[in-house]
Amino acid sequence: MTRREVEYTWRVREIMARRHLFLAKDIAPLLHERGITLTTNAIWRIVKDDPERISLKLLVALADALEVSIDDLVTFTAHDAKTIRTKRAAGDGLPDLRDYRPIRARIIVDDDDA
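The structure assignment produced for this chain is given below.
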């Protein structure tokens, strides 16, 4: 079984902008109506950054407040880990270093210098 890497895109800012909600304080009352009480700073961190961890209750409240599904808030893709590493290591147009073998160095003592 190959290991998979999962990448996700947090799209809350984009969805908020579509609803003309540009500040974290604009979404605070919507979350409060759904039983989520957070400071404006905490909401700003959730909106600004891709969260590593988020409670399911907050995720569902965000989806309901913005009138979207959870699939709209978070989109993801999964790839084989080996494929991703190979692409990152090789780059575009770079030679594959595995095709080259090192050449043994020879040291020659010059008698004229002695």
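Interim note for the steering committee: Strands lie at 4-10, 74-80. DSSP finds six helices and two strands in the chain.
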